[in-house]
User: Which sequence fits this backbone?
């Protein structure tokens, strides 16, 4: 599975599926596509699949150029029906990547294994080119792999300097690497947005000055230089355009390491806080 290193998420969230098409979301997605963000990351729970589908249709970009991801959790108990609903909303025959949005629906290993077996059938049907998971931790992956015939291609997790999951040799990232499960980062801009101020501020500012880019682009590049897929979201055309500069330079291994070391001085989890203890860095 080939995934572009920088992608746009469509977590422009709608709190309800009612109310018809939100043209603002359609236009934001069309803007992203026009700028060259061909990997579109959505989810059934975002309630934006109809907008993504309409944006794809109106953009007139060949389907083979796009990499479309969506996720299941609302209809997790009926995955075969869930993918059909998502495809209808997206106006597509298939998605490139289909993910289980989180493991928190499961009350047992058997629940995880049953859901993954259903995902494997979706892949076999051709309705998803690749399948993976999101927000899974080592116990979830171990349970899933016990009965899997297809290894999850990717695990999409919150990942930034203030939530490194123990680093490359920590249990999660090490397990993923050993089993060829790619790492996709959501919230990669956290250290330069909602978690500011913090110990990374100075090194981000210094590197932004050195490379003539924004601190946000340094944050994205920090992921990319670790072979982590970075997923970012913005409704502003200028910001989306600027983020593409993250693909035009490369930081040194020492600079990547410096950001990681400074990041270890602070812990911040931006999502799913209710599922974890305050100081849980897993």
Assistant:
């Amino acid at each position: 599975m080939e995934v572009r290193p920088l992608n746009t998420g469509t977590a422009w969230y709608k709190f309800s599926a009612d109310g018809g098409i939100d043209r603002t979301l359609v236009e934001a997605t069309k803007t992203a596509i026009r700028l060259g963000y061909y990997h579109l990351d959505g989810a059934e729970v975002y309630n934006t699949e109809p907008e993504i589908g309409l944006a794809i249709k109106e953009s007139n970009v060949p389907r083979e150029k796009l990499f479309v991801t969506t996720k299941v959790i609302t209809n997790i108990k009926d995955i075969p029906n869930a993918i059909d609903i998502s495809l209808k909303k997206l106006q597509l025959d298939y998605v490139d990547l289909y993910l289980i949005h989180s493991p928190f629906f499961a009350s047992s290993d058997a629940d995880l294994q049953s859901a993954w077996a259903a995902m494997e059938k979706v892949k076999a049907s051709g309705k998803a080119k690749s399948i993976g998971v999101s927000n899974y931790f080592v116990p979830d992956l171990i349970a899933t792999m016990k009965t899997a015939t297809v290894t999850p291609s990717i695990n999409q997790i919150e990942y930034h300097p203030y939530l490194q999951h123990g680093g490359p040799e920590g249990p999660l990232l090490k397990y993923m690497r050993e089993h060829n499960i790619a790492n996709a980062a959501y919230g990669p801009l956290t250290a330069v947005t909602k978690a500011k101020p913090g110990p990374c501020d100075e090194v981000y500012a210094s590197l932004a000055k050195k490379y003539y880019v924004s601190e946000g682009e340094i944050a994205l590049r920090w992921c990319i230089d670790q072979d982590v897929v970075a997923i970012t979201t913005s409704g502003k055309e200028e910001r989306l355009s600027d983020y593409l500069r993250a693909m035009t330079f490369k930081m040194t291994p020492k600079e990547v390491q410096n950001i990681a070391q400074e990041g270890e001085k602070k812990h911040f989890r931006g999502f799913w806080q209710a599922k974890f203890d305050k100081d849980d860095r897993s």
In short: The chain has a mean pLDDT of 91.
